[in-house]
Every structure is written in structure tokens, then in C-alpha cells.
Amino acid sequence: MTALDALPGRIDLAPAAGLGRARLALFGMLGFSAGLPFYMFSTVLVLRLQAHGVALVVIGFFAWVQLLPTLKFLWAPLLDRHDVPGFARFWGKRRGWVLLSQLGIGASLIAMALTADDASLGVTALFAVLLAFWTTTLEVASDAWRIELAPTQAAQGPVVAANLWGYRSAMVAAGSGALLIADAAGWTAAYLLVATAALLPFPLLLATAPEQPETRGRGAALLTGLVASSGIIAVTALVTAAVGWVVLGAAGGLGIDSEANVTPWVLAIAMLPFIAMALALPRIRRAGPQSALRRSTALGPYVDFFWRYGFGAIVLMGFVSLYRMGDVLALNLSKPMIRDLGYTLAAIGRADGLVALAASMVGVAVGGWLVIRRPLVSTLAIGAVAAAVGNFGFVWLAGQPLDEAMLYIATGADQFGNGMAGAIFVVYLSTLVNPRFPGAQYAFLSGWAFMLPRLLSGAGGSIVETIGYDSFFLLSGGLSLAALLFLPVIARVRPRPSDVAA
């Protein structure tokens, strides 16, 4: 047995461990599964709300739906510790969670299709949150599996590239297809089409999964998994509705509405995690291997990260929260700006089709190639510059005459920069993870990377109304470049040697 065979969850891919192409195809499909729904609760939803006359500030608030993936560390340990009833028996821990998540994604997309008139923004928000939750759960299971199977930087490059190829191609294709269908047949048809596509990998995973030694009762295990998944999905919807009702009531009590300036609130909230980390670090650094903090199932994986990196963890967290800031800020409001320039849904759909798909895949490929051949710090710098250029492209587009070719150029530059920076960033985050806690720590780092950007993105509508679109995209590109200031420092941050016996 090799060291790789001994990793948690290894049973999920026993026959494919030595088949590089099979592994790349698997993670390409997992990326496809996760990428399909992303635009449906972000960019496509924004255009849908704009078409129904929702105020720009309120559209900005919907960016906070994307905060859910940043909170995935709250439930990621459950995916490391527990199995999905039925599915896990034949399809393994990781694949079992993937199957459950795909069912949740399909159910949420169908619900969004059936409420596509946005008559109740609360209902729209509920199903968007559920879609974000199940998409995120799928990503947690896939990321943990990827890190277990490819624990080194050299091994990560090709697997990350395959995963992102699948993710970004599905994301762009779904967004483009949804807009073209919406323009021709309405929003309900668009969401139903993507729901159908999102469920296609489900039978493929069932069919291609390696069988466990015990083959009796396979049909019963599948039925058990479907019944258990239905119950979990229903309970999750009820809990989300209850929490949403409380949150909306609290927001109304604080006077947060379409007329409110939420930017100061957001900036204050964004500072709280850094203050909390600084206060907690001395105690964490003193904790021994038998400390309750480090042995805790819920907190142990996250305490381990701060124990290993110490005060360097604060620098790392500041860097990862800034690196993708520009891309996230631009994501939600680039399409409303393009619509305001006079481009149709069909034109945006065409730009988000082949142009964005090709540019994104090339960017991912270049990023994956760079991390194999160059030091990570220098590739991080290249990725940051490429992302900033993509943001500045929207400022350039606003100054051009209405011409679909110009839209293609701006979209291509944006997607190339996003693809390159994304591939490099995923590998970088993976190298920070302790292999003892792959799912939880990667969920924490990748979630944190987008928490502050998405907090600020929710205030994007208010910011645009104050400074205008041009200044907003100059700001977002400038923030991408600001990440370069961290690179000399993070290059010197090293983890503390483990004091836990292997």
C-alpha cells in the first residue's frame, strides 16, 4: 500500500489511481457539475432581476447570496466525518456527497424556474441561497477528493486545470445558453434547461463508479440514497427559509433597504475577523497536541492552520482575501453595465459563449502550465496583473461605440485573466493545506478568499451610484494589483513543524 492509498476517502477512486487520463476526466466532470449552476445565482440572476425592474442597489444586495460559499467551512467538517446514507455504501464518501449535491442543485434550479417572475424577492432569494448551498457542498466534496489524490504542487497543476476547464466551460456555457434561451423563450425555460443539464452527470457517476467488494443490495442502497437525499434537501430548505425570515426581519429593523448606504456597515464587518484572529492567536500558538482546541472535531482543522502559521496566518488571510477582490466586484455589475450601454441579452449571450469559453480555457491552461514550471510567487504576480487588465477592459468598453466585436474583446480579456488567476490561486491555496484536514482547511481558505470581496460586492450598487461605473471598474482592477504588495512577505511565510505523530 502506498502513502496515497492510505489517505482518507481513498476507496472512492481505487481503480483510477494510476490512470492519469481517467482522473483528469473525472475532475473535469466534477468541475462541469459545479460550474453549471454558478452563473444562475449570480450573473444570470442579476440580469433577470434587472429585466424585472429591480433597483440597482437591491441587485447589489443579491451578491450576498454568493457569501454562502465563503461560509462553507461551517459545514465542511461534516463531509469529512459523515457519509450520505445509501450512496456511500457503493460509491464512497466523496462521491456520495457529490451525488446528494447534484440532486440539491437540480431541485433548486427547478424551483428558481417555477418562480422566474420574481414576484416575491424573498422567495427568489431563498431558492438562490439553496442553489448556492448545494453548489458549494459539491465543491467541498470535490476539492477534498482532489487534494487527497494529488497532494503535491506538481500533481495539482494538471488536475486543477482539468477541474477548472470543466468548471469554467460549464459556467460560461450555462450563462451564455441561459441568456440566449431567456431572450427567445423566457427565464423559466432558461432555468429548466440548465436544471436538466445539471442532472446529467448524476447517472454518469453512478454508472462509472467502481463497485465495492460487496455487490448485493446495490439497488436498495441507491433507493436509500435517493430517499435520504430527498429528506436532507427538504430539511435544508425549511431551515434556510427560517433563517432567511429572521435575517430579513433583522435587516428591516436596522433600516437596511434600497435607500440605505450599507458600505460603512460592510467595511466594519470586514474588519471583525482580522481582530478576532489577532486576539486568538497567542492562545492557539501555545496549545499542545492534546489541547481541546486542536482535538475538536468542529474547530480542530481551523485551529491547526493558525497553529502552524502563527501571525503569518493573518498576512496569508489578508493576501487571499485581496487576490480575487477585483474579479468578484466586477462579476455582478459588469453585465448590468453592458446592458446599460445598449447591448442585448442575445449579444451578451454570444459574448459569454464561444468567446468567453475559449478565453477562459486558454487562461486556465496557461495558469496550470505556469505553476508547474515557475515558482508560485511569480505566477501569482502574473495572475494578478492579468485579472486587473480584464477589469480595466470594461472601462475601455464603455468608451467604445456600440459594437459587438468590442464586447467580445472586453469579455475575452476578462475571462482570460479570470481563468489564469483562478488556476494559479487554486494551486496556491492547496499548498497551504495540511493533508490531515484537506476538505475542511481548503473550504476555509477558499471560502475566506471570497468572503470580504463578496461582502463588498453586496454594496456594489451603492458604490456605483456614488462614483459611477468607470471609477468602479478602475477601483476593482486596482485592488487586483494591490495584492502584489503582499508577495514579498508571503514568500517568507513558512508553516511550523508538526508536533503530532504521523
TrEMBL record:
One of its GO terms (cellular component) is membrane. The keyword ATP-binding does not apply. It is found in: Membrane. Keywords: Membrane, Transmembrane, Transmembrane helix, Transport. Its main location: membrane. It is a multi-pass membrane protein. The chain crosses the membrane at residues 24-47, 53-75, 96-115, 121-141, 188-208, 220-245, 265-284, 305-323, 343-372, 379-399, 405-430, 442-460, 472-491. Gene3D superfamilies: MFS general substrate transporter like domains (1.20.1250.20). InterPro entries: AmpG_permease/AT-1, MFS_trans_sf. This is PAT family beta-lactamase induction signal transducer AmpG. It comes from Polymorphobacter multimanifer.
